[in-house]
Design brief:
Length: 161
């Protein structure tokens, strides 16, 4: 049974995972070739959460200030990470395979669904095959980092809460 405690802990785990993810992805990005960085930036000139926020805001015919857009975009980013954390927290005990190896299966699914499927389906980014392999490896490693941090957080909080 999924409890409110699982959901709460998952939300906290989502915050921790969202904080951990860019540590790895930024480090990896620094070591990629300039040619591949240029291609990726041409294909995706801004983070997907900013593009999604723009689509939503313009879809409801609102024209917020740059500062408001920045705030909404960060809210989208953090809300997305927290939502995945809540999902992880809710499912990890019911389906223990998801938490094995630091949540590797969940992290891989998170990457495939979020980066590869949703971004393409909602035309937030071009299709995956347009991007250099480095971008996919970095994305996968970032999502694995997210779930490793989320799993550690869940384990810790279930002991103390």
């Amino acid at each position: 049974m999924i409890t409110l405690k699982d959901v709460f802990i998952g939300g906290v785990a989502g915050v921790v995972g969202t904080m951990a993810m860019p540590v790895v992805t930024k480090l990896m990005y620094r070591h990629e070739s300039q040619e591949k960085k240029d291609l990726e930036e041409k294909l995706r000139p801004e983070p997907p959460f900013k593009t999604m926020t723009k689509k939503i805001v313009h879809g409801v015919n609102v024209n917020p200030s740059k500062e408001t857009m920045r705030t909404l975009s960060m809210g989208m980013h953090w809300g997305y990470g927290i939502a995945w954390g809540v999902l992880y927290g809710a499912l990890r005990k019911k389906y223990p395979v998801l938490s094995k190896f630091g949540g590797a299966l969940f992290g891989t699914l998170f990457f495939l669904i979020g980066d590869e499927l949703v971004n393409t389906a909602f035309k937030i980014t071009p299709p995956p095959q347009k991007f250099p392999i480095d971008a996919h490896v970095r994305g996968l490693m970032g999502h694995l980092t997210f779930t490793a941090a989320a799993e550690g957080t869940c384990k810790l909080l279930h002991k103390v809460v």
